[in-house]
Design a protein that fits this description.
alpha+beta; seven-stranded antiparallel beta sheet; 14 helices; 14 strands
Length: about 400
């Protein structure tokens, strides 16, 4: 293992060493941890491809839904400047979106997965369709919500990226990756954060390592679940049959899929969440204004009679992933093996990646890796890293 770790956080690297030394472990990983503004863990280990080339300091990995938290952060920066408003109808920015009864859907609905537009399987026949931005936003503009807007959350596993991303494009005139560079990378001085990967950066990206047998088993499981009505939203939101086949090729980096194809270093993700969770630890103006940050990270678990997300009946369990995600505005709960952090917020991704910040503990934790294993909600690697960081921070401050 290479990099730097503060002695107080040595248990984090011990946990990473254990996870990457298991008989079933392949590939490599990187972990970064900030504690009250101090980078206390910045380590990497293992292989970046099947040929055994070592993971390096600047290696990035495609991190699937961890991307959503980055896209949400762009939105909040634009809200800060009055360019966007969470409670403005999406059609204000994207007029074509008003079709099929969607004129009342707000940006808040998109960020909390309450728009009823999660059914990616009804929009495309295969992953080829996901690679065409114009086609995706056209079919989403023409789509009809599958439930009454604002009455429930249902994880928009893939469609979130084009829905939120098109709003960003309409108001900035930038591609989503260009907006990420302007709103996050440049202000924070990051190196290693892209959505869709520029050709001159692709040599840094670790290959995704997917066992074809694991991929086939996962697809079979999801298809089986899809036969049962209660699991239909999960199946329709997640499954495009050949997605993993395309995700392991260079072609996945040609397009912007802002719900899934972000490539990051752990260091860049942790720094972003540190700027959000512990702004007092950094010099200069806050990355987000305090009022914006407070609302962006507040749990949006209740609905008013007008679907405003602020008062009334509890939303509770997400209709797609089958448990309460404690949705914030584009972030979800920060879960660890040391418990769920009451005020923590972030986003995890299929394949084991994830990043979160927590103002209570002063932590920002991120992990990227390239072994795609387990199920979308059954990978505990990042939960264990997060648990080790939480326990280390508590010992440090006791």
């Amino acid at each position: 293992m290479e990099g730097h770790v503060h002695p107080d956080f040595g248990t984090v690297t011990e946990k990473l060493a254990h996870l990457t030394s298991k008989r079933s472990a392949i590939g490599g990983a990187a972990v970064a941890v900030y504690h009250r503004g101090e980078l206390v863990v910045d380590v990497w280990t293992g292989d970046r491809d099947a040929a055994g080339r070592p993971w390096e300091r600047d290696t990035m990995a495609m991190s699937f839904s961890t991307t959503k938290g980055v896209v949400a952060t762009v939105v909040h920066r634009l809200v800060d400047r009055g360019v966007l408003s969470w409670d403005e109808p999406v059609a204000t920015y994207w007029p074509e979106f008003a079709a099929k009864g969607k004129e009342a859907i707000t940006l808040r609905h998109l960020l909390t997965h309450q728009a009823g537009l999660h059914q990616v399987r009804t929009l495309v026949e295969d992953t080829e369709g996901l690679l065409d931005w114009d086609d995706m936003v056209t079919v989403l503009a023409e789509a009809e919500p599958v439930w009454e807007i604002g009455t429930r959350s249902g994880y928009h596993a893939l469609t979130y990226g084009w829905l939120v991303g098109e709003v960003i494009r309409r108001v900035t005139g930038l591609d989503v990756n260009e907006a990420v560079q302007r709103e996050i990378v440049e202000p924070l001085g990051l190196d290693g954060m892209f959505i869709g990967t520029p050709e001159d950066q692709r040599a840094r990206v670790a290959d995704l390592l997917v066992d074809p047998k694991d991929s086939a088993r996962l697809l079979k499981l999801l298809r089986t679940l899809g036969r049962f009505e209660r699991y239909t939203p999960l199946y329709e939101a997640l499954v495009v049959d050949d997605f993993l086949d395309v995700a392991t090729t260079e072609r996945i980096h040609d397009a912007e899929i802002p719900a899934a194809n972000g490539v990051f270093t752990a260091r860049s993700l942790a720094r972003m969440y540190a700027a959000l969770a512990t702004p007092e630890a950094f010099d200069g103006p806050p990355f987000l204004l305090p009022a914006t940050l407070a609302e962006a990270t507040r749990v949006q678990t209740t609905l008013g009679t007008n679907g405003d997300g602020r008062s009334g009946e509890r939303v509770g369990r997400d209709a797609a992933v089958m448990f309460d995600m404690r949705w914030r505005l584009g972030y979800h709960m920060a879960a660890t093996t040391a418990g769920v952090l009451p005020h923590g917020f972030g986003h995890f991704g299929f394949g084991g990646s994830g990043a979160w910040g927590d103002p209570d503990s002063g932590l920002a934790v991120a992990m990227v890796l390239n072994q795609v294993a387990g199920t979308p909600f059954g990978d505990t690697r990042f939960l264990r890293i997060g648990g080790a960081a939480v326990r280390a921070a508590k010992r440090r401050e006791d």
